[in-house]
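Let us begin with a simple case.
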Amino acid sequence: MKPEYKNWIPKGMIWSAVGVTAALLLLLLVFGLTGLVSGTLKTALCIIFLAGTLIGVVVSVWMLLMYRAFSYDGKRQMSRQIIEGIAERVELPDGGRCLDVGCGSGALAIACAKRNPSASLIGIDRWGQEYASFNKPLCERNAEAEGVANVSFRRGDATKLDFADETFDAVVSNFVYHNIPGDRQTYLLETLRVLKKGGVFALHDVFSKFKYGDMQAFVRKLKDMGYESVGLIDTADGTFMTKREAGWMGLTGSALLIGRK
């Protein structure tokens, strides 16, 4: 049995982009080659549908290239590199507990569980409609395929975790919070709320100023709150991806917020 971690760019999203592009092309042909409308209106509609078609082609190709880069079975396997890179930074004590926020198909939680067989891992996710192929049964099948028994999965909300303060010895996440509208620094604090004193965290995301505000100020804030160590590691310097890859993939600002509470 082989695990199926899916792709961070679901095929449904690609087909949707292709479908919209095809529809715009069809409208361009209909209004451009027939006499349904004429004059200024015809010109305006043709310009609109042509622009939409070109944009659709660019978006479709971009998504396809992203899909190839993230594929676990492809040549680049960026997803695997990121997951393993985060997991190797997490060491748990015997009997320790770790929370993976936004576990998706279970890849990160399972990777951490494999590296820490005497600890227990919990992965939570809302498994939204936009990622319909990601769900709890998929996570459980992947854990079984990997021969990992010290991990469990449940539905949860990253903005309001259903756990008491200082529950876990480690918290991890990957490319989660930037997808959630609102104050993302507050979401980080919510995750860190459930981390025990002395516990470690490894949170990977697109920490751009546009999405997060001043992350250097956030690092200083955590240090002022008494955190033992806090660092923000650029992962687009070849650690997980190159700057060129981060640029065309829209992942500029990718970094790992790491440290100990």
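The second case is a distinct protein. As before, the sequence precedes its structure tokens.
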Amino acid sequence: MRVGRGIALALARAGMDVAISYHRSAARARRTLRELQAAGARAVAIRADLSRPPAARRLVASAARTLGGLDVLVNSAAVLHRTPFRTTTPAQYGTLLDLNLRGAFFTCQAAARLMASRGGHIVNIGDAAGDKTYPGFIPYRLSKAGLVALTRSLAVVLRPDGIAVNCVSPGAVLRPVDFPRARWRRLSRGHQGSVEDVAAAVVFFATCPVYVTGQVLRVDGGETA
């Protein structure tokens, strides 16, 4: 939500009306909504469990109905858990893939149907971890690598409809709550970007010509160079 909040505020400051989704933290969503409104945006918060395809469809329809259309979709909802390969359960695997990848797939599908008559931009939020090896995060890495494949595939499929599909892949930005600080410093090698760095990349893709499509922009300080 912290990255999603930063992206939403950046889009609002760029002059867009914004719909945000949340699942559990209604209080946090209300705070973000007030910030968006203070930035001058028409804004709405919609509760949705995006791991469930019907909820994804309802979210997109509600956002378009409330704000008068849909020009940009940003898929930033994700869950991150350490799940060692030998002890990963089907439930843990399913939780990660259902939200991080299946949720993005069906949200894109719903958005593309609305955008087909007018064009638009879809921006998926990946992770530079998808290009690296972290043994305790295999399902998470699978979900993010799959998101890159989804981005490139949809860029081709949706090009005739004037819909650009791109991906922003951040490096170390926010420490997961279950990570000790010392371990996070080692993992990020002491280099961390900011939410604002990620948000600026999203605004670029949300406002660039639709001819820019199928691209993956790594916002990681050169970590994967």
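The longest helix spans residues 90-115. The CA atoms of residues 27 and 33 lie 10 Å apart.
Keep these points in mind for the review questions at the end of the chapter.
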